[in-house]
Design a protein that fits this description.
This protein has seven helices and no strands. It is mostly helical and 168 residues long. The protein is globular.
Length: 168
């Protein structure tokens, strides 16, 4: 429901300010990127933005959480995605960066970016989930996003590393 309403609002061009349209194109490019370094650099750059901009990006990423569509991921180097070790899409190299979300799906990419932008832990979205389990996790994630973006001073910010105070 949360993501459907947000998607309806964002899909009407007259309702979206010009800057947000440019951000929406950037988000679409991120979700379709095929190279792991491009995904990493994009999210790394977004994380340097002011909180208000990061929250706006989260709003643009939220509709993509529902998508189970598989997308190619090339040059994963020493990336660690536990689910993908089991499928054979990634090979264990003994070290590397750990990502909980399935970056081989649009929803997993969106979830990973949201986790990084809000500095929160979220339930894993992976291609092996049933449609019902995926939908339930997206609902849980929507609640976590709402809590993490609550503008009230002192509102909880999520579980990753503990509870966070409001930061500008």
């Amino acid at each position: 429901m949360f993501t459907a309403a947000l998607f309806a609002l964002l899909s009407h061009p007259a309702a979206v300010p010009l800057g947000v349209r440019a951000e929406a194109k950037q988000v679409a490019g991120y979700l379709a990127a095929e190279q792991w370094p491009d995904l990493f650099r994009t999210v790394e750059a977004w994380c340097l933005l002011p909180r208000a901009d990061r929250v706006r990006l989260v709003g643009l990423l939220a509709p993509a959480l529902e998508s189970r569509k598989r997308v190619p991921l090339r040059t994963p180097e020493d990336l660690i995605i536990m689910y993908r070790w089991g499928t054979g899409d990634l090979e264990f190299k003994g070290h590397g960066g750990f990502v909980n979300q399935d970056l081989f799906t649009v929803g997993g990419r969106a979830a990973w970016a949201v986790e990084e932008l809000l500095d929160i832990g979220m339930p894993e979205l992976n291609e092996g989930l049933t449609f019902r389990d995926w939908a339930a996790r997206v609902g849980d994630i929507a609640g976590l996003i709402k809590s993490a973006t609550d503008p009230r001073p002192g509102a909880p910010r999520g579980r990753k590393g503990g509870w966070f105070k409001t930061a500008p």
